[in-house]
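SUBJECT: A protein chain and its fold
Encoding: whole-number codes for local backbone shapes
Chain under study, with its fold:
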Amino acid sequence: MKAKYITIEREYGSGGTKIARMLAERTGIPCYGQEILEEVSRKYDISVDRIQSYEESATNSVLYSIYMMTRAAAGSSDMLSAEGHIYVAEQEIIRHLAANGSSIFLGHCASEALKDQKGIVKVFIRCSDENEKRDRIVQEYGIDADRADVVRRKFDKKRSNYYYVNTMKKWEDLRNYDVVLDSAVLGIDKCADMLESLMK
């Protein structure tokens, strides 16, 4: 099956963003990650920093998740919290971008937004080598070495909570994905090779 859409969730420091951007460059297929936030920012006149703060305020509480999903399902945007508005806006932007053709999406629960689309492949990128992950965070992200582990845990928790609140699925449950790649075992280039083969 040729993939039309690839959605990527990734551990912080796994190289997932680099893999996605490399894949986009090789295939000529657009990749959207930060661009989703920027589009929401433009459309709704809200800063990217504020959007990110709303995402960070998501909680992994089951009751909160049920509450948020129930309000969203009710269909009245006036009933949504600020966090709920941001999630709905991101999902709308993802579907709008996907309508333009084949795309690669980084995070933002894109697989949920596109769950009714044909040709979607859900990918999770991990890195089983903690030292490699730490080195990447320090060298590529510019984080101080003594803070690398704290920052990694913060971002992974944020991604996990946001995914759970909005999908009622566990971000780290690999059964939620069609393809799981370990960048420590395969390397960045090989991960991109494997995903590229899905889009040919």
Notes: The chain has one domain: 5-193. Residues 89 and 162 are 14 Å apart (CA to CA). Residues 5-193 form a domain with the Rossmann fold fold (CATH 3.40.50.300).
